[in-house]
Design goal:
The protein is α+β, with helices and mostly antiparallel strands and 413 residues long. The protein has three domains: 1-118, Phosphorylase Kinase, domain 1 (2-Layer Sandwich); 120-302, Orthogonal Bundle (Transferase(Phosphotransferase), domain 1); 320-403, no CATH class. Helices cover 33% and strands 15% of the residues. The strands form five sheets. Strands 1-2-3-4-6-5 form a six-stranded antiparallel β-sheet, covered by helices on one side. It has a three-stranded antiparallel β-sheet with strand order 7-9-10. Strands 8-11 form a two-stranded antiparallel ribbon. Strand 9 (170-173) and strand 10 (178-180) form a beta hairpin. Helix 3 packs antiparallel against helix 6 (219-235) and helix 6 (219-235) crosses helix 7. The relative contact order is 0.07. The structure holds adenosine-5'-diphosphate and magnesium ion. The site of adenosine-5'-diphosphate has 20 residues, from strand 2, strand 3, strand 4 and strand 6.
Length: 413
Amino acid sequence: MTYCINPHCPKPVDAVNANNLICRNCGSEILLQGRYRVLKQLGQGGFGNTFEVDECGKTKVLKVLTENNPKAIELFQQEAKVLSQLNGAGIPKVEPDGYFTVLPKNSSVPLHCLAMEKIEGVNLEQWMEFRNYQRLSEAQALNWLKQLVEILALVHAHQYFHRDIKPQNIMLRQNGQLVLIDFGAVRQVTTTILAGNSHTRIISQGYSPPEQQNGYSVQQSDFFALGRTFIFLLTGKEPQDKEIYDPLTNELHWRKSALNLSALLADLIDHLMAPTANHRPQNTQVILQKLNEIEKALQMPRILWQQTAIQSTNGFKSVASSSSVATVSVGGAKSVNASSSQTHKSQKLSQVLIGLGLGCFAVVIAAINQPNTKNPVSVSPVENVPVAIPSPVTQIPEIPLTTNSQPTISPST
Ligand SMILES: Nc1ncnc2c1ncn2[C@@H]1O[C@H](COP(=O)(O)OP(=O)(O)O)[C@@H](O)[C@H]1O
Ligand SMILES: [Mg+2]
């Protein structure tokens, strides 16, 4: 299929144009710049249209600006400049000559065009739709959050901020790499902005932070939108969905709708979305550091990181931690970087756990030797360590660890 991008073409989609250089319906150039043949439309946004194009056998994406006011043109040219400057797998590649203009037949208004690498994959809104809004697991959320913060680190290091992070503007490559797209709202951090002058408003409902709705944005505005993006991914609900958003208090009660999320990650996401920019993480390095800490903590038995999460004092109430029940896989403990008092508590706890584990193990061995035992016991194929499976019949002993949490160890014997 060949597509004519002249907005006044009477028949933009016309198969007979397939090998033409000029559109037979309006007389406009159809092989743009002598090398791009527009194949089909991918999207239609507020400021422009997105197409798939062929460049000498290579598939690319072409964005065409439909607005013609100077501000829109400036932002579009900015997108071209930023994308050609930033280099990384998480950002679509734009060649230095990727930006050009086309003048349709009998028109004095040029069309601004930007050719870029085509990301083979779907955007995260489409991805969620395809999986019927099934919520993201914690492990995948950690991986994706890290990828996106690393991409933002690159953008921010060049003194830009994206200003329009949301699921439709993030794509997933087939190899699992996320790509941030749509730099049409990107803004350079200039002294005027730092001095606090307001600038163009770009708002995506539910994703843009309060300061952006008031006409201001800073690099921390991207963190807010990133947090909101994870609310969507972790709950399967848009941030303004009444099931999680209370318009009376302007609060999001999202944790109850997420799947088995640790309080550590939930707290970080709330931190990203703090109502005022000065209460969000200062920069991408701070977030990456926190993500590393969370990853390490989550390698502990679940019972330990829950305690660590409850002890964390970043000022955000943890809904998730109070409601979940700990399960323990005996023998999975790994060393953790923690404060000395935490380490001491952890060591004591580990001793208790090891003791219990050995106790369980002894009972398991005894149970194996008993004929007709009703309680199931499985052996972990990886570590060859017995794993206790909760029995609906057996009374579960409770071990209180903190005043806030009531974790239970549920051995099967
Ligand atoms: N480089 C690209 N590769 C593949 N698909 C893209 C690319 N850029 C945009 N798209 C698709 O087109 C849609 C619209 O593009 P986008 O740049 O977000 O423009 P806008 O939101 O202003 O219409 C995206 O959500 C995505 O699905
Ligand atoms: Mg977009």
